[in-house]
Amino acid sequence: MKFCPQCAAPLVEKVIDGRNRLACSDSRCGYVFWNNPTPVVAAVVEWNGSVILVRSKGWPEKFFGVVAGFLEAGETPEEGVLREVREELGLEGRIVDFLGIYSFFERNQVIFAYHVSGEGEIVLGDELAEVKALPPERVRPWEKGTGPAVKEFLRRRGVSVRQGGA
Predict the structure, then answer these.
(1) Reported pTM
(2) pLDDT tens sequence across 134-152
(3) What is the DSSP secondary structure assignment for residue 10, as one 8-state letter?
(4) Looking at residue 2, what is its pLDDT?
(5) Is the dihedral of CA 36, 69, 76, 154 positive or negative?
(6) Is 39 exposed, middle or buried (0-12, 13-18, 19+ CB in 10 A)?
(7) What residues contact residue 18 under an 8 Å CB cut-off, 6+ apart?
(8) Which end of the chain, N or C, is more open, meaning fewer C-beta atoms within 10 Å of its C-beta?
(9) What keywords is this UniProt entry annotated with (predicted)?
(10) How far is CA 31 from the centre of its chain?
(11) Which of 148, 89, 91 is nearest to 118 (CA)?
């Protein structure tokens, strides 16, 4: 971003609250680009005793993750995670447990992660290329993004954790 979205003046770097930030060069405007993280919800979905891993369209063939998406305006994280499970898997979900809040610095996101029990038949949403169901002991959490939530889910289930991807 090079120009102020409020007055179109050039943005300049300024130290605000001890951090370098982009701010409007026009002192009458006062706009600051805070670049706050985006809230994301994630579900470690358990369905028929298995953990459901998803591959989004456009992802590499062997890259799977958990159901996740952006929190929408006017919804709680709990509502958002259940909406994502419905949209992506066609399942009705029930929140079993809150797994935690995780920073994903590489994408400037903060992730609210839940263990969700899914009921019904899986119907792939528009964003997904495929799903796979694995017994919890075969799931290997990854290091970043939603991986720490998967690791926490497995820890709470008493499953020995091996790093390295699903």
Answers:
(1) 0.87
(2) 999 999 999 999 999 999 9
(3) B
(4) 95
(5) negative
(6) middle
(7) none
(8) N
(9) Hydrolase
(10) 28
(11) 91
What SS3 state is found at 87? Answer: helix
Please state the three-class secondary structure of 89-151 as a single string. HCCEEEEEEEEEEEEEHHHCEEEEEEEEEEECCCCCCCCEEEEEEECHHHCCCCCCCCHHHHH
Statement: 38-156 belongs to CATH 3.90.79.10: yes
| H helix intervals, 5-105 | 77-89
40: enclosing H helix or E strand: strand 38-47
- Residues of the chain where predicted confidence (pLDDT) is lower than 50: none
In single-letter form, the type of residue at position 162 comes to: R
Tell me, what's the pLDDT at 162?
A: 67
pLDDT number for residue 16:
94
